[in-house]
Amino acid sequence: GVLHEDLRLLLDTALPPKRKKVVLGVGDAKMGAAVLEELGVQCQTGGVVAELMRGIRLHFPALVRGLTAQSAAKAQLGLGHSYSRAKVKFNVHRVDNMIIQSISLLDQLDKDINTFSMRVREWYGYHFPELIKIVPENSMYCRVAKFIGNRRELSEESLEGLEEIVMDSAKAQAILEASRSSMGMDISPLDLINIESFSRRVISLSEYRKGLQEYLRSKMSQVAPSLSALIGEVVSVPGDSPCDPVAVEMMSEALKTRGNTPKYGLIFHSTFIGRAAAKNKGRISRYLANKCTIASRIDCFSEVPTSVFGDKLREQVEERLAFYETGEPPRKNLEVMKEAVVEANEVVAEVKRRQEKKEKKRKKREKRRLEALAAAAEEAAENSVMETEENDVGAKKKKKKKKQHQPEESEAEAEPEPEENGLEEEEEEEPLPKKKRKLVVEPEQEEEEEKKKKKK
């Protein structure tokens, strides 16, 4: 119902100052009503406007400069995706689907671990049947069976390891004594290897279940802290099946026996209903469902989710249980919610204060990092400038040295030794005698003269 700021700015810049005479053609009636309410401009939506809009939409890439059909198709695809995300049942940012899958996986893991543990008990019970009574817990039984292996090899040296597993010295001593007087059959090494391998798988599944439980607890504290504080993490979110199996089973049984229909479904797993008397189970289930609805709405619409409202709602359910048992009247909802609002405001202020401190620290770290980068860049620039200056100074010194050497060499060349020059000049001026001239004649000339003589 509020006109977008970008659209308002576009209309303010595009429309003429006198808007009373302007009639806009808008394809959507809601948008036309919003424009009329915000800007006071009349809008027409039906008739010719629909055909014009269809033509503009068809030839939009040709009408807008720089827009291609490919970019228009991408824009349409992005708009369709954003519209689909807005219509999704759960909020994408709050990862409700991840929590639902975690709940379903926890249920499946519980069933599988129970089944596999019973299989380990039966399998290893042929060899050591007395261990089931001493260690009744499933995961601990698998750890003990894997540690013991062949009961005949169990000795006093193994007591420390047993105590670490069962966390009880009396239990460890009882296991040792039972292994010495056990009625079980002997087991082959191959069967023992298979039992140990299967026990190892069950132990790994149990450890993974603990990690998944912690993951679910952290997710619920982020998404629905009030609801998880009210009834717990596992009961807070149903699985992906459309109906609760407990409710379906109870409904079918009631229809077969023509008895009363069940008054509770998924929240039957809550501890509040288990603590209530049989005649008060329906009342406490309706009351608990009402409080769960309030907690869910608070988690959905609160900007900073806190568990304050969930704790207060849990106190109300406890007071209602006490009222059914003792008759003590509980507090009114208005009083409890006023206290919750005051505490929630304090918690939200503290959370915002912490967030502001974290943001300030982050900005300081970012500023220091940028300053360090700038200082490093300045140092690099200074070093490069110094290197260039040193290179220039070195080149100038080399040039000066070359200039100093060049005149010395030229002077040495210009001043020849007088004795040598005088001898050379005397040698050049003295004419050779005729006999020596003949000796100096080249051999080629002699051959030519001999040829000439022969011809003559």
From TrEMBL:
InterPro entries linked to this entry: Nop56/Nop58 (IPR045056), Nop_C (IPR042239), Nop_dom (IPR002687), Nop_dom_sf (IPR036070), NOSIC (IPR012976)
CC per GO annotation: box C/D methylation guide snoRNP complex; small-subunit processome
GO BP annotations, alphabetical order: ribosome biogenesis
Coiled-coil annotated spans: none
Pfam families with a match to the protein in the record: Nop (PF01798)
Function summary: Involved in the early to middle stages of 60S ribosomal subunit biogenesis. Required for the biogenesis of box C/D snoRNAs such U3, U8 and U14 snoRNAs. Part of the small subunit (SSU) processome, first precursor of the small eukaryotic ribosomal subunit. During the assembly of the SSU processome in the nucleolus, many ribosome biogenesis factors, an RNA chaperone and ribosomal proteins associate with the nascent pre-rRNA and work in concert to generate RNA folding, modifications, rearrangements and cleavage as well as targeted degradation of pre-ribosomal RNA by the RNA exosome.
UniProt-listed PANTHER family: NUCLEOLAR PROTEIN 5 NUCLEOLAR PROTEIN NOP5 NOP58, NUCLEOLAR PROTEIN 56
Similarity comment: family membership: Belongs to the NOP5/NOP56 family.
Name used for this protein in its record: Nucleolar protein 56
Organism the protein comes from: Ptilonorhynchus violaceus
Gene: Nop56
